[in-house]
Every structure is written in C-alpha cells, then in structure tokens.
Amino acid sequence: MANKVKEKALAALSDQGSLKILATIDENGASHLTPKGSLRFEDDRLLHWEILESSKTNRNLTRALWFDKTVSALAIAPDRSAYSFELKPIRNVVSGKLFSKHYEEAAAKFNGRGIAGVWIYEILSVSDQSAKTRIAEEKAARPYFTHLDQIAKKTDGR
User: Fold this and answer.
1) Which range marks the domain in which residue 105 is found?
2) What does the alpha-carbon distance between residue 59 and residue 53 come to, in Å, rounded to a whole number?
3) Is residue 58 over pLDDT 80?
4) Is residue 138 assigned to a domain?
5) What is the C-alpha R_g of the chain?
6) Residue 12: CB partners within 8 Å, gap ≥ 6?
7) What is the pLDDT of residues 84-100, one digit of tens each?
8) Number of structural domains, the chain?
9) What are the tens digits of pLDDT across the range 18-57?
10) I need a surface site. Which of 49, 63, 144, 154 has the fewest CB within 10 A?
C-alpha cells in the first residue's frame, strides 16, 4: 500500500497541473508556506529551485539543514487527489552540472532570471491526504467517533 501511495504522490509531483506547496518553520516556530512549482522528483531525488538567496524559505531550509529538522510539502493533483511529504533537506546545490542544468531551465522559463540554488531532499514519509482516503481511514480507525449532527440525521430521517 505504501509504495502505491508513494507512486501516486510522485506522479502528482510530476504533473505540471499540480499545485505544490512547501512548508518550513522559522526561528520562532512559525510556519511559512509557499508555492513551489519547481518541486519535482528527478533522478531518484526530490528537489526544487530556490529563486532568491535571501528568501524566508531559503533561510528556513538552511536552519532545517543545520539543525537536522524536517519540512513538509503538499502536492494537489488536477483530479484533487492530495499527498503530503515529510522531507529532510540534504543539501543546497549552488554550482556544478546539476545547478547549471536547472539554472538554464529557470532562465528559459523566467525570461533570463536564474536561481539561487537547487534544494535536494530525502523523502521520510508520504501520505494520501485526499478527502475520500482520509474519511475512510478515520472511519476504520475510529468507528464510534461520530459528530452528533451525523447521528441525529440518521435517526430522524434527514
């Protein structure tokens, strides 16, 4: 089951129509969420471009790397299926072949504007966050945990 979820999640990341969001934590413990269209699974690794070296996301990722913290990502596919990822930042690539490849791709996409780096992640876990899946999981795990209005609807015929 877990491998099938991971396959679907990686397919959602690869879909150009998917919305991809990266969540990091700042020095005060506040979450910072930002869309990351460049988030992708490529050559057996998860990565994304960071456009601005001084961005809040880049600072938060550097802190996560230094202090062995995790970050999260969410991919919502065009069919509304959703997958969350727990990620460990591994490194920020700022030179070399990998960087150059992505720099050129970004420059072509953004009218000459390059990138500050390519963040690479280890995938620690993947979960299906689609409403249908989550409802089924909760019903199976907690069959007697039902909100009172749902019980009332069943008994009074509404």
Assistant:
1) 2-130
2) 8
3) yes
4) no
5) 19
6) 18, 75, 76, 77, 81, 82, 83
7) 999 999 999 999 999 99
8) 1
9) 999 999 999 999 999 999 999 999 888 899 999 998 999 9
10) 144
